[in-house]
């Protein structure tokens, strides 16, 4: 008969779960990508009623959400370079509609230096765009998923991708979006959606998956819940820290679930840290 000590050792071995902090301390980088809604429903940016209006003294809701979430995420990204995209606008020079264009208009290098670089690229691109539509978010999810898919070839906990989507409206490519999210749930990737303005965001709640398992149009369920939706209006009068904490609340568990599910250990796990840390201020 095995001794109690042996049984304990076996149970410990079976239930050894690495924490979010283990992966971060092991060198896992958070790759943070931003996608901003430039559809016409936001209103003409030159009009003070527009969600994209640049007030000289007061940041709009897009900027508030971007800075609140981005400033936390950038602490987990060593090079502080963030790809930033737009969707739903006609872009120069041909003014064709795009749903995944670089807001710095450099398709070969869409990265911006720090969150401030994203803010500057956003403010600079606004006068050059024609806000249009529809609100299609599947293309940008697929773009980031492609990078996350390439990361799976390393078989290491090197990079985990977070896509922050800032949008004001009802998604018009819901079937394709569900398909894209189901595919992304198999990858080292999470999707955060912040709803800006006062639109009906009930479809977003469905993507979140908290009220039931999200499925593709063909019925395939997500492998794991990777979407977090937060309406900005719930935090209009709260601190940026409160918004960031709510938006990022599920990310540590999503990171751990992915790597533990794949049996991927931290690259250099530190036994000093046994407890998980929250990705929040």
UniProtKB/TrEMBL annotation:
As for family, the record states:
Belongs to the copine family.
- VWFA domain location is 29-231
Answer yes or no on keyword Cell membrane.
no
Which Gene3D superfamilies does the record cross-reference, listed alphabetically?
von Willebrand factor, type A domain
Which protein, by its recorded name, is this? Copine 4
Question: What SUPFAM superfamilies does this protein map onto?
Answer: vWA-like (SSF53300)
| GO terms assigned for molecular function | calcium-dependent phospholipid binding; metal ion binding
Tell me the organism's taxonomic lineage. Eukaryota, Metazoa, Chordata, Craniata, Vertebrata
Q: Which InterPro entries match?
A: Copine, Copine_C, VWF_A, vWFA_dom_sf
Which keywords are on file for this protein? Calcium, Metal-binding, Repeat
Name the Pfam families on file: Copine
Highest taxon of the source? Answer: Eukaryota
């Amino acid at each position: 008969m095995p001794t109690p000590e042996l049984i304990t050792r076996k149970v410990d071995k079976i239930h050894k779960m690495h924490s979010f902090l283990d992966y971060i301390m092991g060198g896992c980088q958070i790759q943070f990508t931003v996608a901003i809604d430039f559809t016409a429903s936001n209103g003409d940016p030159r009009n003070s009623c527009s969600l994209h209006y640049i007030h000289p003294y007061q940041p709009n809701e897009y900027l508030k959400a971007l800075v609140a979430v981005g400033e936390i995420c950038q602490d987990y990204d060593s090079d502080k370079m963030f790809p930033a995209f737009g969707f739903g606008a006609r872009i120069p020079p041909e003014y064709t509609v795009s749903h995944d264009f670089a807001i710095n208009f450099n398709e070969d290098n869409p990265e911006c230096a720090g969150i401030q670089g994203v803010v500057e690229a956003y403010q600079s691109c606004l006068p050059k765009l024609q806000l249009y539509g529809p609100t299609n978010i599947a293309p940008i999810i697929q773009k980031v998923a492609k990078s996350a898919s390439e990361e799976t070839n390393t078989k290491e906990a090197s990079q985990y991708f977070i896509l922050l989507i800032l949008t004001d409206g009802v998604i018009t490519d819901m079937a394709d979006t569900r398909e894209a999210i189901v595919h992304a749930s198999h990858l080292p990737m999470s999707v955060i959606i912040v709803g800006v303005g006062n639109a009906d965001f009930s479809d977003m709640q469905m993507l979140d998956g908290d009220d039931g398992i999200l499925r593709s149009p063909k019925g395939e369920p997500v492998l794991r819940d990777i979407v977090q939706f937060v309406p900005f209006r719930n935090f209009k009068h709260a601190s940026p820290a409160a918004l960031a904490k709510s938006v990022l609340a599920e990310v540590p568990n999503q990171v751990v679930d992915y790597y533990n599910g794949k049996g991927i250990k931290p690259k250099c796990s530190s036994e000093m840290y046994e407890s998980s840390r929250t990705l929040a201020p």
